[in-house]
Structures are given as structure tokens and as C-alpha cells.
Amino acid sequence: MLAKTFCAAVVGLEATTITIEVNMTRGVMYNLSGMADTAVRESYSRITAALPNVGYRIPLASLTINLSPADIRKEGSSYDLPIAIGMLAANANIPTDHLKEYMMVGELGLDGRLKPIRAALPIAILARKEHFKGLIVPTDNAREAAVVNNLEVYGMDDITQVIALLSGQAHPDPVVVDTRREFYAQQYNFDLDYADVRGQENVKRALEVAAAGGHNVIMIGPPGSGKSMMAKRLPSILPPLSLAESLETTQVHSVAGKLGRDTSLISQRPFRAPHHTISQVGLCGGTLNAQPGEVSLAHNGVLFLDELTEFSKQTLEVLRQPLEDRKITIARAKFTVEYPCSFMFVASMNPCPCGYYGDPTHTCVCTPGQIQRYMGKVSGPLLDRIDIQCEISALSFDDISKAAPGEPSAAIRERVIRARGIQEERFKGVRGIHCNAQMTERMIHEYAEPDEKSLQLLRLGMERLKLSARAYNRILKVARTIADLDQSERVQSHHIAEAIGYRNLDRGDWAERGI
Q1: Alpha carbon of 432 to those of 340, 382, 421, 435: distances in Å?
Q2: How far is CA 41 from the centre of its chain?
Q3: How many whole angstroms separate alpha carbon 145 and alpha carbon 313?
Q4: pTM of the shown model
Q5: Are 212 and 416 in contact (CB under 8 A)?
Q6: Burial of 14 (0-12, 13-18, 19+ CB in 10 A)
Q7: If we measure between CA atoms, which residue out of 168, 172, 97, 100 comes closest to residue 130?
Q8: What is the DSSP track for 298-356?
Q9: Which of 174, 306, 333, 356 gives 20 to 30 Å between its CA and that of 439?
């Protein structure tokens, strides 16, 4: 007897419908076809051990299972449930009338329980697109999949519940998630706030400008000056995620298997801070299954690399393409996957191996050669992609003990949202451009062209600070953001002056300092 069930294969963020055809005839042969990996091929052993434990036994027979279309690679254990249901239907243990109405995924334990799988959200989006009546998933994935409206999502604990549903013996209620209520309820629930940061007003201003324009930023200063503390609070002043951004971000985390059981939609911008021992694959994605890396998990959020020079130079260099293109392509012998990675890049580092170069309160013990090698780990092309570069000084005892509490994140965020609103209106007719950091050269000349007075100031600043020619556009982008924070239609001289101050760590300036 022939039976058909439906599930999905996920490549990147895209899911494709997979038809599982199970044919059972007389004999003792077993054959699985359709470009299946080891985990899929092992499903037969799990299924034949699990079914007797829940009261079903598949007789010895010639069993042929085909996963169609055969030219798409099938990976993982999510095919266990549809294959098991197909085998039961082919053996006439359950009726086949309702099989075509449901898409189903789930890993099967030897006791018949359903275990969670990855990428439930992209699969749910596909099920609605293909007009399936419902989607059957493990209970742990139910809330994640129920984000998709106009689709009945059933979270099941074990295969017996699935059999009861398909046989018409049970009529469970589908899982319902009030997406908008849960999404907006968590948007501004931050554990960290800039009110905790005393002093360092110039650095907080730089981070405000970076948040307002989506600019990348690097902070250089001695240990204990507050670099990490301020970076970790950056999400609290960023504009809230839109529903579209949240859905795309949640899809990435769903494919990576990073969503918790109680998570439906990611409502706050991600903040990823990988350790400096991370590999190139861990940072940018890969492995045999082409899983998303940290740059994609930081999509629509912040990627923070603390102690930048402790990362291997080869690992840092792979950031060039993601920073420029805001997407990353992972190529393998038989397939290519593309993930989005539009993030704010934030880095911090010490000025030298001991950390106290230029600190008036400590003596630096590093030789010029050591400092040069240390700083040389950050290449010119990577530094070129960082718009805002600022030095941080260590706080004195009086600064720490007597300084008033800092401005709360909510007040800063209000100014940032207002500036981003101006930019959204400015670029509303341009696809893929949402903030000043993404401006093309033509847009820079159109929206950030300085007047004669500002141009003279820019020329003077570049000559005195020995800034490179590549810093020109970066300064204008930052100046445009500063003007937006001031709600100024034109870029003025004081906007240019502040933007130049954020480029005082240009590569040419490092060379001048003997670094």
C-alpha cells in the first residue's frame, strides 16, 4: 500500500515542501531514497524501536521510502515523525484521508515522545504559503511556529497524540499566540541602562551618534575604563525592532536552533559578544550543514568584539565582506546558502599589550615593536569600515565617586528614534537603505554635501590629523547623522567638527604616533 505525508527541508532561511512516499509490499527489503543524510537514514532504526513501545508493530515487509524532490538535500532528524506516520498509514494502522491536510515535523524518541527540531518558523511560513490546513510540531516548537497566523499549529508531546488527531479520535485546540501583544510587551524591558554609567560623556555621545546612524564604532582605552560596560548597554538606546525585522531575526535564530521553548518572537535587538577564541566558521557560519554564525545571529542588532586584537587576524579579516554587503554567502560543494547579517559592529581594545599606552596615571612597559605588532592585528581595510573611532581615558577616583548618575537610556533612545525617523523618510524610496551608515557615495553627495565653510574645516582637519582619503566619506556620513540628531536640514561646520573628532584614530594617525 502507498501512503504520502508532507514535511519540509530548510536551506538557509528558505523551506521547501518535501513529499514522503512510503510503499509497503511483500518482502523483507528496506530502501530509502532522495538525497538523505546520515541522520535521516538512521530514522528507520528509531522508528522501528519506538512504534512497538507505543503499541504499534510494523510487520516484516518490503519497504520503499522516497523523499521527493530527490535533488534537494535532506538533513536532520525532523523527518522521523512524517516517515513514521507514513509507515503506519501504508500498513493501514491509520486512515490516509487527512494526511494531505497537514505538514508535520519532529524527532522521535525511542519511547515515542517528540523532541524539538530546528527551523520550525520557516517551516510554518511554508505551510501557510502552501495552504496546508495545519502544522504538527513537537510541543517545544509550538509557540515558535504559532507566530504564523492563518495556520493551525498543533504542539504534540508524542506520536500517539498525532495518530489520534489524524484518525479523528481527538480534536485538540491549536496553539494560539497573540504575537503583537507579546512582541510590544517586551520591547523596552532592558536589564542594563546608561544611567548606571558615570562620566565618559564624550564616549556616550559617540555611541548615541553611532546608534542614530547605524555606524560601526571602535573604542580604545586602558583596562577598566568602561568600554565593555557601555557597549553592553547599546541595545537599550537603539530603535525598537519592527515586526518585519523581528520576524527575519527570529527566522535566523530558529534555523540555528537558538530559540527557547517559551520564545515566540524576538522582540529586542540581538547583542552577540563571542569570545576571542572563536573560529572563522563560528563567526561567519558554515560547518557541513551551513549553520548561521555570530554575524547572522547579530542581524538587526549588535556584534560586539571585546579585546579586538586578541582575535586571530584571519578571523577578523573574514568580517570585511559581511560589513560591506550586509549579507554572507556560505558556499559548499553541492549547495550555496545566503544569510542576512546587517548589524552594528562594535569593538573595544587596549592601546597596547599592557593596556596603558598614553595613560598619564600608569607607565607603559611595552616596546614600540610590541605596540606596532599589537595594533597591526587590525588591518587598514577593516578599520576603514569603522566610522567612529574614539579613545577612552580611565576615570579618576573623584570622577567615579562624585559624578552624578548618567542620563537614562530612555532619554537617549528618544533622540535616536527621532533621528532614525528622519532617515527612514529620507530613504523611503530606496530599497535596502535604512540609515546613514548605508548611504552610497551618490547619496553622500546628495544629502551630506558640506558648504564652503564646512569644506574648509574638513580640509584643515584631514591635513592636521593626517587622515586618509578613505576617511572623507565616513566623516560626511557621521556628520549627516549628527545633523539629524540636531534636526538640521543641512550639514553645518560644527557637525563636521564633531565628526572629525571621531576619526582621530585613523591609520595615518597611528603611524604618526609610532604605532
Answers
A1: 12, 22, 16, 9
A2: 31
A3: 40
A4: 0.90
A5: yes
A6: middle
A7: 100
A8: TTTSEEEESSGGGS-HHHHHTTHHHHHHSEEEEE-SS-EEEEE---EEEEEE-SSSSS-
A9: 306
